[in-house]
Structures are given as structure tokens and as C-alpha cells.
Amino acid sequence: MPLTQPDRIARDLAQPLMLTLWRALQPLRSVTTFMNTGAHPDDETSTMLAALTFRDGVNLSYICANRGEGGQNDIGSEVTEDLGTLRTAEMERAADVLDMRLYWLSESPGDSIFDFGFSKSGVETMGKWGRARTLARFVDLVRTDRPDIICPTFLDIPGQHGHHRAMTEAAHLVMDLAADPGFDGSDLPPWQVAKLYLPAWSGAGGSYDDEVPPPEETLRIGGEGHEPVSGWPWPRIGQHSRWFHKTQGMGHWTGTSPHPGWPLHLVRSSVGADQGAVTDGLPMRLDDLGDGPDLKAASRAIDAALSAFPDRAAVQQAALDAHAAITAALDTIAPEHHHRLTRKAAQLARVIRISANADARGWLAEDVLTPGQTTALHLESNKQAGATLSPDLPEGWSGDASQITASPDADPSDPYPDRHDPLHPARPRLAVTVAGTRSYLPLEVPPLVLPTTRATLSRDAVVLNLAAPDRGVTLDLTARTEGTPGFDLPPGWGQIWDGDHVRITTPDDLAPGLYDLPLTLDGRPAQTTHLFRYNHIAPRLRSFPTRLRIRALTVTLPEARIAYIGGGNDRVGDWLAALGCDVTALTPAHLAASAPFAGFYTVLVGVFAFRFRPDLLDTLPALHEWTRAGGNLVTLYHRPGDNWDPDATPPERLQIGSPSLRWRVTDETAEVTHLIPDHPLLTTPNRIGAQDWDGWHKERGLYFAKSWDEVYTPLLSMADPDEAPHKGALLSAEIGQGRHTHCALIVHHQMEKLTPGAFRLMANLLHRAD
Fold first, then answer.
1. How far apart are the first and last CA of the chain?
2. What is the pTM assigned to this prediction?
3. 630 shares a domain with 512
4. Is 93 left (phi over 0), alpha (psi -120 to 50) or beta?
5. What is the DSSP pairing of strand 582-585 with strand 705-708?
6. Range of the domain at 409
7. Looking at the domain assignment, is residue 332 inside a domain?
8. What is the pLDDT of residues 89-139, one digit of tens each?
9. CA distance 180 to 192
């Protein structure tokens, strides 16, 4: 559907014409590209990049390894591939603010270059990503973009995230490999990167703890000044970009204090030493590329366009002159500089459109399409600008100025596109022609394409408790295309369909295990779609085979009436209800009651809830009083910044460790030692044994407690290889007549992955011990 009128007004407010024109002019000042590299969305050095492009005129690109699938989610409960889909869209919006080209090493949700979780080792990371695959992708993208400078964000030193370390190591290697005609991992022409920088600042902080000092500063990118048109200092513009990383809680107010700048260390240079700028020794102007008259004319015209601001008519005429000169120069320029001219031509076409105040936009009547579907196209522009608008469509699509039709063979929308360029948005897009020059805009809401054979299950993952009398599963198809549905079942299983309602039966002797049941429609594999709509990104779609995962396990349920207070970042309450527990999700209305915890034996506080539930903070005195009177309080992991005051949030002092790298166990197979094997939380109602620590996903836990009051007893010990053991993963204390247990294990994530031990341990934590 199109944007609402209020949404369109809000977008218009964020794009004032003169600021948009000013920013479009700045990259014309240079033909040099600075490539930043990192492992995850949000690793880009946004504040420094804002100064480089909008003050210094340097062109920007960014290579990111993975989609951040292993991270946390500040705005919802999406995890792994769904979270990666969101973070891909967020990274694109962040790149748009900086007018920065974006590339990904990972090409699909099944790629080996995946955010498998936190790592402390670059060697481990390269082993899981595949060293040859990582370097081949990196080289291919460097040869595609042809940057003059590469600068990783982090250092390859102990105390850093292993993913960061791997990308920094790779940057050193790629500088040679990209220039090597004998490298067989890419069939693109070789490219010699001229300079490699490293940050000359520490990457230590709330998450990391660099053990080695940064290299010496050889050059500093100054942080002084502000953008003339907006008045914003460069770091604040960088935070405008970082704000789009909302799943990671990014973006903070910088104020007006002068920024000291960003120190860099020049590792290698093929163009000599720096004299004070990262661009020293590199071509800056078009006439630095050769002596031809067209290049000189283009340079003079670009100078005229820059100096003519804010006279839009003069800017437009100068940009038209520069565009014509570049078009002529393309026939004579040396091949190694062709990319510089084509980018300048695209940048100039954008300036021409903006300076004409084309005010162009296009939107579709429907933004979620099936293959072969036709939908109306609406175009709008400033008639006085003389712009011509038309749809620019993918191969196989058709359309005109009034409608478009998706190809009958259109593939489902790609949740993981491998690149993004603000000058060249993905098709279908809007082509805007002004005075013979063409530039491109995305449609207001880019359309998404559904798979042809679709079916959505009311539940796609189920826990089947073998301790319960009912061994069957009932569920519904909430949406599907035409066709007779059916599951591919193991021998001895059955399925009874009543329309879109199905009852799956299992054998009486069903063995514990994980059962994966594909769904078909008329024998064709069905696809499930997850559609994501958040206001800060364009809608996104992920399609994958429809299948029901059933985890058969034996769990003795807790004898307790449970109150669950979630922050929107986990689904523990839902999983407990599915397991058969008596659980009530407490809303703000519940917590506003005079005795909000009356009638409950256990209160379970979800991940990050103290940050995202201000109503919970308001009830802390009542929660502590209830605990001391005999209640069982269980808190899941929180970060130090999640309104966790070690002296006030828990009933007794409990401090969360920081930086988090030091207070986590990233090896999901790390041995777990039971410090008090007969403690009720490890024996009742389920005896927790070695088998309950098998099959964990991503890691054991993080944000472990660093220190605690002596009333707390540590119950577990675990460690990553070659590290001292941690004892702050699971702590429990008698508080008056009640109990508080703090669990920093990622049990909520294990439940999503149907890990049996997580369900059994959680049942124990919630159990009525008396």
C-alpha cells in the first residue's frame, strides 16, 4: 500500500530541497573512494564517514561480512535469519544517510559467512565462515567497487570480537589478493588499493576489551566544523545514520561539544606518505585523471556547480555542462578510471534532478505482489521542472506510466541482497529524466514478491511433552494458495485434515527427538513468508520452505502459577504456555493494580524488561516485598545499561559484568560444571544432567554477573577455551521467605531453537520449592 499522507509529510520534512542539493553536490568534489570494512551492521564508523563525505567530498563504500543474525533485538523478538533480514534493511537506510555504497560478503541466509554468535577468535571465525570463501568474496567486491583506500573499523587484537578480527586480517590480505591477476577466487579485473589504514583508537568499551594498545597515530581526520546548510556537526550527522540500527538500540545525542577527530594509522601506501589528509597522493579532481580537454571542462563545470550553490538554476546548468563533458570523456579515458567517470555522471544526473526541483515520486496501489499480478502505478512530479517519469523494471516485468505487472516467473523477494547503492536503487524503481539526463529513485514503498505456492502455519515449531497424556499436535493453516495440503510424515504418524485445520497424531512409543515435517500443496513444496513492517525501514519479506518442527521431550512441569513480565524481546511466556505451564503475561494494567503479584508463586522477568517496561520499574518496591514474603522471583539476562542498578534492581546486590566480552561464554559446547549438584534448582522437578547441555545454539550465555552479595549462591561454572571459569551464569539466593534466581544463560534463545535442556532447566527455575 502507498504511504499514508502523514507518512509522506514526515518523509518530506526529512528531505528539505536545499539540504538535499547541498549533500548531492559534495561527492562531486572528489573522485577518491574510502572503503570502510566491518563484520556486522553498525560496525561502520558513521561519525567519521559523515565528515569525510559531507565536508571533505570523499566518496564512501562499506563492506560488511554478515547480517548480524547472532545479535540481540531491541525492538522485537525476531532472531537469526529474521533478525538478519531486519538488519539488512536497517544497514541500507543507514548507508543512505551517508550516501554510501554497501556490499555484503554473505549472499543468503544459508551462507557460511553467518553471524554464528559472539566469538573471541579470528581463527575460529575464519574456520566457520570458510577462509577461501571469505577472501574470494572480499576480493570480488573490492574489484567491483575499486576503492582507493580501505580502513577496517576494528583491530585484530585479543579482547576484540573474533568477527572483527577476521575482517581486519582479511583486509590486509585482500590488498594484495585484489591486485593479483593470478588469484583464482574472482574473475573480475585486478584492482590495486592504494592505501590501507587502521584505527589508531581503542575499540574497548561496553562490549570489548582490547588487550593491546592501538597503533601510533600517523594522521588525524579532524572532527571540527559543521555542515553549513543544516548547522549540524559531523558526529551528529553520523548519529542520524546510526539511529536506523534500531534493533541494536543505536543512535545517541552528541550535543555541540567539539569532536577531537579520528586518529588513523597508515599501514601501507603505494602513493607515498601522508601530508595531512587521507587523500594525499590520490587523484581528487577529474583533471587529475588525464590531460584531455573533456576532463578539464568537466572539472571546471563541477567547480562552477559547487560555487553556484544556492542558485539552483546556475547549479543545474553547470551540472549539465559537466555531465556532457564526462559523457564525451568516457570514450577516451583510461580503463582503470572508467568507474570514476561513470559514478560522477550518475552523481551529476542526481544533482540535475534535485536542482530542477523535479519533486518526483511514484507509488503502487499494492506493495505485496504475486507473480504475474498487475497493480496500478501512480506518478507525481513538479510539472515546471520538465521531468519525465517512467518505471524501470526487472527483466520479465512489464508496465507503463499507469501500471506494472510482475513477471509470471518472478522469484520471491530477496531478503539478503548483496549490495545497495543510493544512486542505483533496486528495480523496480522510478527513472527520472531531466534535460536528457537520467537518475533513479526508489518507489515510495518498494514492492515485495510472494512465492507462488504459499502456506502459513499457525505454529511452525512445537514442543511435545512426552510426560503429558496428549501426544498429538493441532494447528491451522492461516493462509495458503490453492492445493491440497499434506505433511510428509514418518511411519506410524497420522494427519487428519478438516479444511485448514489439522490434527497430527504420533505413535505411542514416540522417541524423544526433533522431527522436521515438510508441508506440500498438491505435492509441491510450500513456502512460508515472514513479512516485516517497521516504520524506520521499507517492508521486507523472507520466504522459506514451510515445515513443522516438533521437539518431543520429557519435562516435568513446575507446580506454580507463573506471572511473566516480558519486554518484547523474547517469547518465553509463549513457550511456557505451549509446554503446558500455568502462565499469565502481566500487562501494564496488571502492574497498576494494588497487589499485582497476588496469587502468583513465581514472577519471571524477561530479557531487557527492566529497560522496556517502565511500569515494571515503578513496581520494584512491591516486587521486592512480594519476594521477601515468599515469592519466587526469576530474572533473565540484562545488560548493565538496561536500567539494572546493582544495588536497587535485584533484591540484594548483584552486578552485571562489563565489558561483555569478559563476562560471557561463547562456546555453545563449553563444559558446564554443577557446583552444587543436589541443589533443588538442578534436581526438582527435573534432574539436570550432562545431556541438558547438549545441542545448545550460538553460545552458553552472556552478561554474566561479575559480583554479588554473599546471600547469592553460584550454581554453575563454565569457561571458553583457555579462560578462567565463570560462576555468574546462574545465581540463586533466599530472600526473606522467598527466593531470587538470576539466569544469564540464553535460555530464551534455546527455546526458540527447541533445545530440550532449556525447557527442563526453566521448569526447575519456576518450580514451587516448598
1. 56
2. 0.90
3. no
4. alpha
5. unpaired
6. 361-449
7. no
8. 999 999 999 999 999 999 999 999 999 988 899 999 999 999 999 999 999
9. 8
